[in-house]
User: Fold these one by one.
Assistant:
Number 1:
Amino acid sequence: MAHSTFKTLFYINRSKQKKNGRCPIMGRITINGQQVQYSMGLDVNPNNWDAKHGRCKGDTDEMKNINRILTEKEGQIQTKYNELVWQKGYVSAELLKNCLTEDSQSNGMLMEEADRFIEEKRPCVGISIAQSTFRNYIYDKQLIVSFLLEKYGMSDIGYSRLDYGFVEELDFYLKSKRRLSPATIQMTVIFLRKLISIGQQKKYIRRDPFVDFKAEKPRGTRRYLTTEELKRILQTPILNKQFERARQLFIFCAFTGLARVDMLRLTPKHIHHYDDGTCEIRIKRQKTDVEAIIPLLPIAKEILDIHIKGKQHDDLIFPILNVSKASFACINIGQICQIEKGLTFHMARHTFATTICLSNGIAMETLCKMLGHSDIGTTQIYGKITDLKIREDMNRLQEHKSKAFSDYTEAIEKQNATIF
């Protein structure tokens, strides 16, 4: 075979300058005078481009990462060129470009899969996926794209380039640059795990980048009302009709553990009556699709009886209370009832779990079923023993053992009198 000339070059396309002033970085392959161009999926400020060397200039992390990508690409092209020469005995610029494109497609791109995943889930919103969960998917994708742009100067990345370092850098970026809470970071990491799992199923990636990675877990705390605060909510007069209706729904959730969205989905068919006069709610939670089974306490039953009158089998029992109205009402109810910790509607569910159930000896397994949790680990977050519960338990112990305690105290006093 005659000796062929082979050359690679990187340059910026100034004619395609973007609104932010950056220009796309292009690659060019030349073999025996034949040229092909391709996009690197990167862009850079023209002032940071060294045309002579085909690299970025500057010592910033972004410039270093772009140069590293270009060097890796150059090596990939050289490797593929040598491979084709060995296999076929000849190489054309077009053939080399096509082979590189096929390799790229077979490796898969992370954000392409993210877009595909989101679009596949879109028809399920409101059916098997909550609207809030779907919004989180979109937000998580935006965070990862922001990280790619800032760290690598690109809006997408191949699965083949994902490793432990990538996951660790993303975690650091979300903590330090974006200053996000551990809960939000965990949400984004879980989304990335989903995308990695898809890549593994499609054979884009073999080794799991999350091996040995341990993310900081958010503190599992839940805000709730104490018994005294709950009494204040129950007993304080509220003249405003809108706030009074909201209070009734809040109290109902505080004595059933239902989330606002599940309470609003209640119909008479979800209420099961028994021969002994008791009744319970059976409803699948929107969030987990797990059935919650909740025997009705007297206060909850009184509120239910008020609203269920005249309702047919499939009629909604309670009036609609959207997020904004619930938040506005809770702010005002909290002020009227002098609740200093900042009242939110979801605190009703936490109050049921902690103050109504756990503080009164309800087993964790029973609470798990009433809350409709798919995993008892979620329920155990509510297992934090409150200061009030500690005082109540110790007071009962002191009353029960008061005689023994007093006898021991008298014995100590006599002993001290002898010694001193």
Number 2:
Amino acid sequence: MMLKFLFASALSLASAASVAKAADIEFWYGNTGLGEEAIQNACSAFNAAQSRDRVTCVGQGSYEVAMQKAIAAYRAKKNPVLMQFFDAGTLDLMLSGAVEPVSEALPQVKWDDYLPGARSYYQTAKGALLSQPYNGSTLILYGNRELLARAGISALPATYEELVADARKLKAAGIACPFATDGLSWRVLEQFSARHGEPIATRHNGYDGLDATYTFNTGLAATHLQNLKSWRDEGLLRLEQDTKTGKFDAAFNAGECAMVENSTGGYGAAYKALGDKVMIGLAPMYQGKTRHNTLIGGASIWIMKGHGPAEIEAAKAFLDFLRRDDQQIAFAGKTGYLLMTGSALTALKISGKAATPEFAVADLGVSSLAEPGNDDSRGIRLGFFVQFRDIFLKETQKAFNGEKPMQQALDDSARQGNELLRRFEKTYRGAAMQ
């Protein structure tokens, strides 16, 4: 009996030692600038807060590059255990078999504490959360108080009709760049369509099946792109290549442009450059249209398969650390990204920091995500969407440059996008939408 007891105790201790085994893991991310600084700060804080595990955070230069490298590394069985993927790659990852849903890996976590606007993009139809929302953002309108005042404007426009009227006043006042954008799909198509409650593709943007087809080349989105072209021709709108800096957000931060639609994640850099000159408001609507929620942007953290128990435990510990209220608040204060959980928002209000400039976008961003939604404002579930974004930009730039009519550019984008969707559908034939 004593031998049996000692043997059982030894097994128990061995099991406990196995669970507590230290591990060195890597977390790959795509942010640069203030976002990268904040990520590195979080990694250092985690390593200093405990002695069992160590995480090395490795920047990859951009979301697109990070995703390509992670997929290649997975095929070579050299992938990191934790990977930051951006919103556009959600469906590809969901069906890849390379990732484990975080709600299955961490069933004890109260995932419903995450804001609905953050969960819906990364959640399956059955309610499983695929990844942990991290550097969440959404689209808002920025204004330069000083430049707007030169044209007698004291408040940001709520509608595009008001924005155009203000842009004409700014132009008349000698402001060469009244409004600026980079023309990326995320800003001028995805966020625009979501908050206007309109789809960019059938099957509720692909949520209901892989047989979706693009429809953005008709309706309000098509009208908006044509308007952007005419506003540029009139000198009211500048694209990146029209600005002195070559970047629309840098042009705003340098005081060249009076207004931009940009991510809440850009607030940190804008405030650092312009201070109290920065004004923020909800992204504009067309008159007579009902406002719906904007989409969550930025990225989330995924657990990649192919690692042992010790590495997985270290990954869970790091995710737990990043989820802490104080860590979310520190990250948001550094970058302008949004707090992702209700508990972190409550903690921010209790702290007394909610009204400080560094957290100016917190309530605005959350309120934009929390606007009433419909089946077409949940998010995007379209295959090879990263490649589609490139096609959309290439074709619409041709229209902006006068190489083809905007309607033709949109039709060509939809046609090429549908070819991608059919190829994706063929690749994952028989796969069930989660």
Number 3:
Amino acid sequence: MSAEVSSDRGRRHFLRDVSLPSVVAGLLAVVVSYSGPMVIVLAAAKAGHLTPGQTTSWVWAVSIGSGLTCVLLSLWTRTPVVTAFSTPGAALLVSTLDDHPYGAAIGAFVLAGILTAAVGFSGLFGRLMAVIPAPIVSGVLAGILFAFGVDAFRNLGVAPLVVGAVIVGYLVVKRFSARYAVLGALALGVPAALVTGTRLSSVSLEWARPEWTTPHFTAASAIGIGIPLLVVTLASQNAPGLGVLRTSGYPTPDRLLIGTTGIASTLLAPFGSHAINLAAITAAICTGPEAHPDPRRRYPAAVACGVFYLVVGTFGATLLSVFLTLPGPLIAAVAGVALLGSLGAAITDTTALASHREGALIAFLVTASGVTLFGVGSAFWGLLFGTAAHFTVTRRKP
């Protein structure tokens, strides 16, 4: 009886907390995920000479994994936990997948998932993250979001009508209601894109057909794919993902979050999922004030994000055509204005404490540079160089 009351109370709380802006934020997060990173997944599938069935199964697996973890973790923690498929991991596979039999690559995916779960549930990853001062994390987040803010305006020279419509829609609606500003940007931006010649692909709602591939474990695939995939996913995705939650003021139960994504990665690996992890960029869309002015009522944005992931996954790759045909300037502009609040807060936190300023600014600059070293993205190097600079400057003289 008490369980039923508790469950009903949880449902009533969610229905009370959900709002149209939070749903729009969740939708935008999914659009950003599929319009950019998914292209890299498809490129990796092509480089690995996967069949159409294997490629569709891969899309299904990462979509279902991201959707389930988004929904379950967000409802469980009442925190906007946004997960996604590993973009740097997919980039790694573009150059390595063709060097190994597909079954061996699947075995490497399983290995990376198991190790991720072990690192997460052990608390080791959380302890490493706890060493990094908060302004350094804010600097990394600011560096990640900076490119989106710049791209929103850089594309004015490419598609002035579309980008201009997005900016005008955002500012005009925000003048009256900040909650619906992103919706206003979409409301003007999409018609402007259609007027300038964009044609959305037709949607064929066909059920996805996941394909099982039996994992084969080889030393070559473990060294060539598994370990590098583990490192780049933890460093370039999970670290900044935890940082986004931390910077936004949310508790970060790292054992639960990292461990659960590791389990999801492991279970879905035989169907093609290379890695499920915490998101950073799309998380910032759902954790910012545009999702809801009250931080306690932003978790429905992540739940909505998960639901949209599940819809795309359920109907396979057919819905991808809609996301992939949306013009780049429209996506960049809407994402840019949606992230303005998060970017402003991150920049403020980066420069707030004089004692942390050098390290935080170095973290910001390294991350914003987009540098990639040894296959690891700039977010990791921003954390590393910023933390090293901080302790070098602030270390007490003997």
Number 4:
Amino acid sequence: MTRPDPAAEGGGPEHGAAAPAGVPAADRRAPGESGTAGGPGAAAGARAADAGAVALVESPVQLLNVLEWALGQGDILLHVVVLPPREAGARGQLRRMARLAQEAGHRVVWREVRSGGSGIRSLPGLAARLRGARLLLIGDPFSRWIQLLLALSDPREVVVVDDGTATMEFAGQLARGERLVRWHRRPSRGPGATVFAPVARRAVTRLLPQPGRRRVEVFSAMPVEVPDGIQVIPNDFPWTRDHFGPPAVLPGADLVGTSLVETGVVREDDYLAAVTALTKRYGITRYFAHRRERAAKLRRVALESGLEIIRPDLPLELVARRGPVAAHVLSFPSTVVHTLPQVLADTPVKVSVCEVDDDWLTERASPRARVFLASVTRTASGVHGLATLSALP
């Protein structure tokens, strides 16, 4: 059974449907132009937000972690700039997270930088705002848009908030002085990569501390290694635990889906066989889809395993905390094997991590994929004491 995804109904603004909730008429007419998202608390946030404190986010998880960071800073109110992706599922979750940010008093604007000409025209305004920012929070240092805006800014303080397990790879690459490349991709080549290389190098300099000139922090729920001079601030989700739950706990088990097939890391047939095997072995009844999972693949999951497919309307940390959630939550190596144990620490829910077998990897998988997935599994077991389960049929 597949539950409809409210976030995806009608598509997103890129399909000519309604604009994100709270985005003003000006932004609906010309995405990327000036405008402030509305909604509860938005007016107060617009008056009180610190123009020198700016957050750049591209995903609902990044925005969640911006809210978590802000809670630890007392009365700070941020100017949050949302650079939405094209995927309908992520856009829907971002709309809802934007409302939560507005209710917390932050000023939220929605900038369609990926919309072609109008997106490019929004860059000068964004760059001007960032040049005046003394504090900059970013959610994805691998993003070319974030790197471009970083290169155009010169903040006195940079805070990298979690973008899930990608933060582990980013911190490790920064510590080793390596080029920033997502763990599931091979380094870009060709004329475009050559032209962008100076921008990427300049962006990396903004992520390195300079005594007396720039402080850099990483706000993370992940185990990370960072260069000397960068402070790591642990994220144990106080905002999430305060605003949601504790959840009702159901018997049985839930399985958290992954986009490893969509990113070309594992073969779809092997993944589906693993899901079916886990379902039979642990009595799983529900499958929480990743926002990037394709509808065709999810139909196969439902047909072959008999699972109810749920498309969360918020990041899974909030969905699980809101409940109901099963007494046993299983996940392949992903962000939630580090976040859910903290979000659900005051509940009887057990979280387990399912191994990805090396034979499932595609020929397109990067050389780093095997090592990285194993490290996510290993650290989840070591840091949180999670049981490691075999997903082999």
